[in-house]
Amino acid sequence: MAKRTYQHYILLPRTGVRFPDDPSVSATLSTLARLKIDTHLDDVLDSDLPQQAVVLDTSGPRGAKLIRLPESDLPELRAQLPGLRIVPEVFYFPQRWRYEVNRKPTPLANQPQVSIRIRLTEARTNRPVAGAIVVAFTDFEQREGEQATSDAQGVVRFRNVGNRTLEQLFVYPKAGLWSLWRKNITLKNNDVLQLQPVKLDVPDAKGFFYPAGPEDEPAGRGVKVGVIDTGTGPHPDLVVAGGASTVTGEDPADFADVDEHGTHVAGIIAARGTPPTGVRGVAPDVDLYVYRVFGRDSEGASNFAIIKAIEQAVADGCDIINMSLGGGSPDDATEDAITFAHENGTICFVATGNDGREPVSFPASFSLSLAVGAMGRKGTFPANTTDAPNVAAPFGTDKKNFVAAFSNIGPEVDFIAPGVGIVSTVPSGYAPFSGTSMACPMAAGIAARLLSAESAILSMPRNAARAEAMIRLLATNVQSLGFGPTFEGTGMLFV
Prior knowledge:
By secondary structure, this protein is of the alpha/beta class. It has helices spanning 27-32, 41-44, 74-80, 205-209, 261-270, 303-315, 332-343, 436-452, 455-458, 464-475, 485-488, and strands spanning 6-12, 54-58, 65-70, 85-88, 91-94, 116-122, 133-139, 144-149, 155-158, 165-172, 180-186, 191-195, 224-229, 240-245, 287-292, 301-302, 320-323, 325-326, 347-351, 369-377, 401-403, 413-418, 422-426, 429-433, 478-479, 492-493. The protein is globular and about 75 Å long.
């Protein structure tokens, strides 16, 4: 007997993400009502399915079902549940840009191995920098080189790249320091590389375009913003009004950050700190809700977790949802969840992706998403950071402004926002990140500030007309930076 290959699938109604209230209208709906978590499909359906075919999760009595099933049994399931859509589970990824750390170099081919050790220190204090990822390329185009991590003394040991010119060198420290980028460098044994500290009272691109107002200014007050991400906090600059984990099999009450990404995104929107000891988001007075869709042992976020998170954000009364994720295959489930939000008066901002001017990734490419690309400004980050390669044409009407080289483009782009060298909160302190992941919450936060002044819109019934009124409001508060619509959509939101 051939070995069964099990896959995860989502059961959805013919349209939308919610099944009708009355299961008596069809035999299929009556059967669905019996599909609860841990139910074996063979116990409910008139078929001979294996015991491992089971319901893994549900978004509620009327909600979608996540099941495990052998791929070979899909035809039987369709026959048993006619009129349903059966959608594969797919995964999406954070849209933080690290120039090369996610594509590790390959070992040098047919060359002698020469070891070398260097040391990383902080520029002001000369203290060692531990835990920094260092990526050295001897041949950047062919991806040849080596990756290592600094130890507690700041020492980085390479086994293969000594006595060679490094075409490119990338250093990614932990919180509190800027990254480092060098070209055409030959390292000597015991060389010291110094990293610049982050200064919270020096404006980054966020501070340049959206300088913090007075602390008593109600920036975003009365607006609820949901962040669907890796979780958030804890962090002293962030006040979380509520949230959940929607990851299958994990504690729904545990929405603490499993990475750093979600805390950084949330801080761009809603941090309440004060420089030089903290940071302030663009809409610090919003009610911040956090939905963790990334598991503790998974890099990707399931479309099923995203469905649950969007439904919960709508139930919690969120006006705006931020999704700094993408890169997976388009799927009906995520489209229907975004449509569900729209039909319930909630708008979704989504990062366009970081594939280097490739087409806008999904779900930003979906027509009801508000797709946000990333730009930067010269002089808002140190010249020798890993953000330097992201300075690329086209340049704006102000020639210091540029579209980030990593930012995806296309006719689906709605807005552009600062996303290069953005300093925000991470669980261990503060750090500069880059990516359309950073641009997206910038736009979402400014949208919240604009919406907070529009009580007539906020008081509208929660339906599609409300969502459309919000989008029309944004259209009257946007300004082109001169990049052209393929790169910036209608432009950048301004208060």
